[in-house]
Design brief:
Length: about 700
């Protein structure tokens, strides 16, 4: 069981996970203070951390910028605040007054601590929540703010939590950055002194950054070293601020929101921040990733035990040129390859003939589907596949019946231009009537057509993020929009328990623990070039598991990069996640179709390893040398090694790939060649996989434990 223990005489709280401990106390001023986060401690040992705080270094210094569980704006504090409050009389400082605590152990396998506070004068309650589980070292934290007074309280910043690191000689931060079609590019760089903020101001998680960070002392590797990390469960604008102080300390704080907005909290109202989960690992970046993967499967995904089907998507084959006969022809070819889920993409509804018209008019085009979608759905089901459909419920084209009827439904400000991106405007889902409209047509569409799967897209960031008619609309908008988005998906899935959903936002623009808690997988990137995908998937997998990572095999030359890569290489890259196919099957040769069917069958044999196995990264995509990932069954009975190399350099040494996570006393047989290998040799000395000669070489090595 997870353990939450307390020492009344010292005021120390200790949260214990299977392998780690987190210690805190309430200090003499009433503020909740951090003591330690790292390897497992007893309560007696944790109390040794409760030494009196060091005095300020000089009269120019106030309270240390690091070390509080939720640093507030108030007193002699000069660091990055997690909580900023503005009271009705103009007072901006917050002062802590402890009012109690609660420990809840009613949920088997979990324990939750709530530390309760109020302001010393004003009617504002602050409740710090901590939750630990018996099967993960991830600690879940969030904050609840309740206005108990009779005037509005304004919150310029209300983060979920702050995390303090132990003192080290140096610090390094790992994060991902990028843009559309180049998401999840992993960066590792020294933490500068001062404040570094990672953020999205776009109203969505964004392609440009992702709401997680990992910090280490600059010496961690894939397999060794201490790593402290956190990930935010939020699908709107967000920020994470990392701070390094002159005296050699570091911390980070994060939550929903962005600069320039201030959330109003009326009398009797409360705001619950999104969850900001944290993790300590002493096994390097690889162990941290595996812990995040296991946590996501155990505590985030709605159907973690399912095996995701092999998917076909029609977009790159047809674009907007969609009709019943063409989709049926593609479906027949997809079924012959062994595809299990057929998804019709954009172009099936209203006057949708290009990107500039039709969004918002969600009825099948009469000229393309004269009898509606039912004949196509029935044919796909007859072929033995599930049926999926692309939708973009949050968008509208100005050239649409919906916009002509409801121009007030979009994000906008009076007397300001309504900026179009991709010919689209963003519907204001923060409005309850708009959210109810979206839910209504979605649940009818799914129910009336027996739809099994939705690819839920969101293809542009916010602009003119206003809510006319409400004085506080621009401040309420970001939070209310995401809450209503979540509510629509929750209601839809409650209506249709068999429905499965993929999160998409122009590719990987909305991937986070918040959206993954109500969807089944994510579209990783609109870039389907196999070589580019290796780096994108490498960054994605730092926190998110392969079970959620949709990956397609598409045509060459690639539509985006014009690069041509062999079909087998494309398949091997896509087999590292949830396999999908997106090429124009009507143009594939019989040889290509035969090879693809064989590779689909091969993926199905190893799919449980990829989607539910334990991931290791023997070598990342760091240069022209081989790149590899390994997936091992939880019982260590099987393993899959996927290896890719763009092209050999003459004279470059061939370095064996050392595997991990195998049964050390076992022997493993290569399912293709029959060769038998000792686990100790594979682990300690490595293996040189047999790659084909020439450029774009790849292989999949399936190892099965010998009885």
């Amino acid at each position: 069981m997870p353990v939450i223990s307390f020492a009344p005489h010292t005021g120390v709280w200790l949260l214990s996970t299977p392998r780690t401990s987190y210690a805190l106390r309430i200090d003499e001023t009433g503020a909740p203070c951090h003591l330690g986060w790292g390897p497992r401690l007893t309560l007696e040992e944790a109390q040794e951390l409760a030494a009196p705080p060091a005095p300020p270094a000089s009269s120019f210094e106030g309270r240390s910028p690091v070390g509080e569980e939720l640093p507030v704006d108030g007193g002699a504090r000069y660091g990055a605040p997690s909580l900023q409050v503005r009271f009705a009389d103009g007072t901006r400082a917050f002062e802590w007054r402890p009012t109690g605590h609660r420990v809840d152990e009613s949920v088997p396998g979990s324990a939750e601590l709530v530390l309760e506070f109020s302001d010393t004068h004003y009617g504002l309650g602050v409740y710090l929540h901590y939750r630990v589980h018996d099967n993960t070292d991830v600690i879940e934290r969030w904050t609840v703010l309740r206005n108990t007074g009779d005037t509005t309280v304004t919150l310029p910043r209300a983060d979920s939590a702050a995390w303090t690191l132990p003192a080290r000689e140096d610090y390094r931060v790992s994060h991902v950055t990028g843009q559309w079609s180049a998401e999840s590019r992993l960066r590792r760089e020294p933490v500068p002194y001062g404040e570094t903020t990672f953020t999205s101001r776009r109203g969505i998680t964004s392609h440009h950054a992702n709401p997680w960070v990992m910090l280490d002392a600059g010496e961690a590797t894939e397999d060794h070293g201490e790593v402290w990390s956190a990930a935010l469960a939020w699908s709107g604008s967000w920020r994470v601020t990392v701070q390094r102080t002159p005296d050699g300390r570091a911390c980070f704080t994060g939550g929903a929101g962005q600069d320039g907005t201030a959330l109003p909290l009326g009398p009797g109202e409360e705001f619950t921040t999104p969850l900001l989960a944290g993790l300590y690992s002493d096994g390097g970046f690889g162990a941290a990733s595996r812990a995040w993967h296991a946590y996501t499967l155990a505590h985030v995904l709605p159907h973690p035990d399912e095996v995701r089907p092999v998917l076909y998507n029609s977009w790159e084959a047809t674009g907007f040129d969609v009709d019943e006969a063409g989709q049926m022809a593609l479906a027949a070819r997809a079924a012959a390859l062994g595809v299990e889920l057929y998804v019709m993409d954009d172009g099936w509804f209203g006057a949708r003939r290009n990107a500039d018209a039709g969004l918002g008019d969600w009825t099948p085009s009469a000229d393309r589907f004269p009898d509606g979608l039912t004949p196509l759905v029935k044919e796909v089901h007859r072929l033995g596949m599930r049926f999926g459909l692309w939708v973009e419920p949050e968008m509208v084209n100005p050239d649409s019946d919906l916009y002509r009827a409801h121009p007030d439904w979009v994000l906008h400000f009076p007397h300001r231009t309504r900026t179009e991106l991709r010919g689209q405007l963003v519907l204001n889902l923060a409005r309850r009537d708009v959210a109810d409209w979206a839910y209504g047509w979605l649940t009818r569409l799914v129910g009336e057509h027996a739809i099994d799967f939705l690819k839920w897209d969101m293809n542009r960031a916010f602009s003119e993020a206003g809510w006319p008619g409400r004085a506080d609309g621009a401040d309420l908008l970001g939070t209310a929009y995401v809450r209503n988005l979540y509510d629509i998906v929750d209601r839809l899935r409650a209506d249709h328990p068999g429905l499965r959903v993929e999160s998409c936002s122009g590719g990987g623009g909305r991937v986070d623990l918040g959206i993954l808690s109500r969807t089944d997988q994510a579209w990783t990137s609109d870039n389907t070039d196999a070589w580019d995908r290796l780096s994108i998937q490498h960054g994605y997998g730092q926190v998110y598991p392969a079970r959620t990572m949709a990956a397609w095999v598409t045509d060459v030359p690639n539509q985006l990069t014009a690069r041509s890569v062999p079909l087998r290489f494309r398949f091997h890259v896509a087999m590292a996640g949830v396999l999908g196919i997106g090429g124009d099957l009507t143009r594939w040769s019989e040889e290509e179709l035969s090879e693809a069917a064989e590779l689909v069958a091969e993926y199905k044999r190893v799919r449980p390893l990829v989607q539910h196995g334990v991931a290791h990264r023997p070598r990342g995509p760091v240069d022209d040398g081989p790149s590899a990932v390994q997936y091992t069954a939880a019982d260590r009975a099987e393993a899959l090694l996927l290896v890719w190399q763009r092209g050999p350099r003459h004279g470059s040494p061939r370095v064996p790939l050392r595997l991990a996570g195998l049964d050390p006393d076992a022997r493993y047989r290569d399912a293709r060649t029959g060769a038998v290998h000792s686990a100790r040799v594979l682990t300690d000395y490595g293996i040189l996989p047999a790659l084909p000669e020439g450029d774009w070489a790849s292989t999949a090595v399936h190892l099965v434990r010998v009885p």
